[in-house]
Specification:
Rossmann fold, 13 helices, 336 residues, single chain, 7-stranded parallel beta sheet, alpha/beta, globular
């Protein structure tokens, strides 16, 4: 039976759901060195690697992957995998592209309403016994506001549909998306991120973390935004310059920001965003994807993908399709 290696956390759930399909193996070491030694040993005999943000699938790790022919990520993002190197080695990289699209889109709208209506501040006031603060918590309506969406993939589109239904004007920037006549009717596309930033009341980010998007929103970009605008990021932490956002919140250049992702997760106590004096910042612990429905879809997709890979079939969610011919050759050699 083929071996699937999960080098982080418990393997109990995966072992149960993949029973009879693949042999799931994990690590048991306690110290950092014990864990690393075990990872090296087990990776050399593994056929499928379950990857996650908890482990960096880089050149060093892949140098031990002698029998590996697939890397499976139970997430949409694959920024923790060196996809280029995996491709050079004939290793298929697979993600779970659709499982949490609706969940993340709905969460984005929730964060936006929470920010503009200052809901968390109201909850905090009540919990502190300061009911009288209600007169100070004047929010803003989202109807009629301009929402700027950076990245118009599946999640960005679902956010746009919901924002449009709430009476917002939606503008979009995504240099990699081809628009349809219906898109052009419903949304306004701009040619540069600068145009989007200057015109938006709320900016929400829905791009993958790549070399070109790392640090996409920094001090210069924030300076282009309207005074009193809002910023939302549910994509990846590295896309924004956290210090620049912190300073913009302190100076009230930004009226508020909502972040479900950070560069370092979890953040340490010394992290700038742990400053209790900032009231116009919402941070959630990377939970935009986490719903009952998304978890069910993720499980179903995962089982289907592993079954396909074990049977030598092309799974859904391949992020490096150019490697498929080499992958098929690798499978033949593994069987012979």
């Amino acid at each position: 039976m083929k071996k699937l290696f999960k080098p982080f956390g418990s393997i109990e759930k995966e072992a149960e759901m993949l029973r009879g399909i693949v042999d799931v193996i994990g690590i048991q070491g306690n110290s950092k060195k014990q864990k690393w030694d075990e990872i090296i040993k087990k990776l050399t005999i593994s056929n499928i690697l379950l990857a996650d943000i908890d482990i960096n699938v880089n050149e060093e790790l892949l140098s031990y992957a002698r029998s590996l022919y697939a890397i499976v990520c139970r997430s949409i993002g694959v920024d923790f995998v060196d996809v280029k190197l995996a491709s050079e080695k004939g290793i298929l990289v697979v993600n779970s592209p659709d499982f949490c699209v609706i969940s993340v889109a709905e969460f984005t709208i929730g964060l936006m309403i929470s920010l503009l209506r200052r809901i968390p501040e109201g909850i905090s006031a009540v919990s502190q016994g300061k009911w009288e603060l209600r007169t100070n918590l004047k929010g803003a309506e989202i109807t009629g506001k301009v929402l700027g969406i950076i990245g118009f993939g599946k999640i960005g589109r679902e956010v746009a549909v919901r924002a449009k239904g709430l009476g917002m004007e939606v503008i979009v920037f995504d240099p990699y998306v081809t628009t349809s006549p219906q898109d052009n009717k419903n949304y306004r596309y701009v040619d540069s991120i600068e145009m989007l930033l200057k015109q938006s009341d709320v900016v929400t980010i829905h791009t993958p973390l790549t070399a070109s998007t790392r640090g996409l929103i920094g001090m210069s970009e924030i300076s282009m935004m309207k005074d009193g605008a809002y910023l939302i990021n549910v994509a990846r932490g590295g896309i924004i310059d956290e210090m620049a956002v912190y300073e913009a919140l302190r100076s009230e250049k930004l009226a508020g920001a909502a972040l479900d992702v950070l560069t370092q997760e979890p953040p340490g106590e010394e992290h700038i965003f742990m400053n209790k004096e900032i009231n116009n910042l919402l941070i959630t612990p990377h939970i935009a994807w986490n719903t009952v429905e998304a978890s069910k879809r993720n499980k179903e997709i995962f089982i289907e993908q592993i079954s396909s890979i074990v049977n030598g079939e092309i799974p859904r969610g391949v992020v490096n399709p150019e490697v498929i011919p080499a992958w098929k050759d690798k499978l033949k050699k593994c069987k012979s």
